[in-house]
Amino acid sequence: xxxxxxxxxxxxxxxxxxxxxxxxxxxxxxxxxxxxxxxxxxxxxxxxxxxxxxxxxxxxxxxxxxxxxxxxxxxxxxxxxxxxxxxxxxxxxxxxxxxxxxxxxxxxxxxxxxxxxxxxxxxxxxxxxxxxxxxxxxxxxxxxxxxxxxxxxxxxxxxxxxxxxxxxxxxxxxxxxxxxxxxxxxxxxxxxxxxxxxxxxxxxxxxxxxxxxxxxxxxxxxxxxxxxxxxxxxxxxxxxxxxxxxxxxxxxxxxxxxxxxxxxxxxxxxxxxxxxxxxxxxxxxxxxxxxxxxxxxxxxxxxxxxxxxxxxxxxxxxxxxxxxxxxxxxxxxxxxxxxxxxxxxxxxxxxxxxxxxxxxxxxxxxxxxxxx
Length: 372
Known about the structure:
Elements: H1 12-18, H2 28-31, H3 35-46, H4 54-70, E1 82-91, E2 95-105, E3 110-116, H5 126-139, E4 145-151, E5 159-164, H6 165-184, H7 194-197, H8 207-219, H9 236-267, H10 290-301, H11 305-309, H12 316-327, H13 331-341, H14 362-370
Parallel strand pairs: 3-4
Antiparallel strand pairs: 1-2, 2-3, 4-5
Helix pairs in contact: 1-5, 3-4, 5-6, 8-9, 9-14, 12-13
């Protein structure tokens, strides 16, 4: 894989988000939330399903089977295709990224660009796939057709689009050039986007999100602040509206509190009605000091290793990484080994959440609720 060009400004996935809001930036809390997706992408790339649960295995297997089926469309055979996993694609001077899967057929002058998504939440990915497709055309200029595929088994049927290769390359290069100009222009305002605002690090200072929260809270039929407590929302209609708004409002509120605390610390000024307070979050021993802490406890109180361990909790993810390193196996295999070794004591966690019944935007859902 070629090295990432120094002049590349944004990757294809970032371009997808920036095309909808030029001021979007992932918040720190979401950058660390991709462990499952990373593991499933590795499995999609390699076919090694170890370390995945049954539902995850089914998702990856469905996606891989779909890719294989593309090789037999229109009477083609598998031998006609060059199959690349995790291939670097570049648009010179504009962007560089890694496509999950690329199928090339020289006889038919055709490329299939496939992006695997482990997400449970619907979103837009057309610009990302078009950028990868244009990168394929720039890499293989003899291509005449490009077909892009978003394969997200948890959301249903794959999304497929077909393009004229030369037109795609020209259109995408112009689109990205224009996008960079909009980003560079300080007068370009942010845009409220339902699937971006809830995970944007700029939410606290964003006029688009702040205006949306205030307007919607007042105008969409939610109880006003005097009855804003969750247990005061009683009708099914209001519960549905509140559920739609919750993601953006929670993120906005957390960002406001964080930003206000930083302001008070930096300026020394008080926000009317509030005072800066600090409280202990409890005495703790950093992970890298655990061994030293055990030695000190033995010296001070005679606590043996079993007594110390009974006061500790085990981070399974760290154990998996340690086993992977010590045993020389992949993290997927290490996870299976750890799962088996801890079968009698480990507890499988899970979470429950509300998911939309239909793949519609928040605006469409709110509009339907307000007509009832």
